[in-house]
Amino acid sequence: MKKIFLAVAVVITLTGFGQGRVSPHDTVSMKNVSVTYGRPYKNGRVIFGELEKFGKVWRLGADEATTITFSKNTKFGDTEIPSGTYTMFAIPGEAEWTIILNSQLGQWGAYSYEKHQAKNVARINTPVKKLPAPVEQLTIRFDKDKTMIIEWDQTQVELTVKPND
After folding, report:
1. Partner of 60 for a Cys bridge, out of 66, 68, 114, 124, CB 3.0 to 4.6 A?
2. Spatial distance between the Cα atoms of 135 and 126, rounded to a whole number of angstroms
3. Terminal C-alpha separation, the chain
């Protein structure tokens, strides 16, 4: 019996079964701002409207909710945000997304978002741009003009991010 248990343990360890994460995680930064998120792949799926339903809160990544940290007070979209770390969610729509910052940390996905929505610090609407070619892996990046860009499948949204000097 010990040999069977040991063999199963070795297989689990070598295959990565049970590691809990399929999507790689990444942290992207610009001066005084960083975002940590899971980066799922499209894998032939229709992402927005099917996998991620329009009008439903989404964790903006995979696994635990995406976090954004501001080391200084920052204008995020059109809202002044105090320095600190927040969870970041999105409500995708065909023409517009709502990006939500919430002060409740440690959320797994968006499963408990409803009970914590009183802790929202911002809800920012931003238009959707249709990309000419699909982006295979969810990507969040910053450009030199202090814009946060979120891309996946054939969808792109942008928000200005301006830390206070």
Report:
1. 66
2. 19
3. 65
CB 147 within 8 A of CB 140: no
Total residues found in the chain within this entry:
165
Distance between CA atoms of residues 21 and 80, nearest Å: 34
CB contact at 8 A, 36 and 66? yes
CB 128, CB 93: distance < 8 Å:
yes
Question: Are 94 and 132 within 8 A, CB to CB?
Answer: no
Phi, psi of 36, rounded to the nearest 5 degrees: -120, 130
Q: How many CA atoms lie within 13 A of 145 on its CB side?
A: 5
Report the DSSP beta bridge partners of residue 139. Answer: 151
* Spatial CB neighbours of 23, under 8 Å, sequence gap ≥ 6: 38, 39, 40, 41, 61, 62, 63
H helix intervals, 50-123: 113-116
Q: What is the pLDDT of residues 105-143, one digit of tens each?
A: 876 666 566 766 778 999 999 999 999 999 999 999 999
Look at the block and give the residue holding tokens 């910052």. Answer: 101
Cα separation, 54 vs 62, whole angstroms = 17
